[in-house]
Amino acid sequence: MTAVSGTRERQRAGGRSEQVRLAVGGAVLALLAEGRTDFTTAQVAERSGVSRRTIYRWWPDRSDLLTEAIDQHVRTVAVPDTGSWAHDLRTFAHRIAAFAAAPIDLGIARVIASGRHTDLATAVLERYEPVLADWRAMYDRALARGEACDRQGPETVINTLLAPLFLAPLMTGAAPSPDAVDGLVDLVLAATEPQAVSAN
Question: Fewer Cβ atoms within 10 A, N terminus or C terminus of the chain?
Answer without folding.
Answer: C
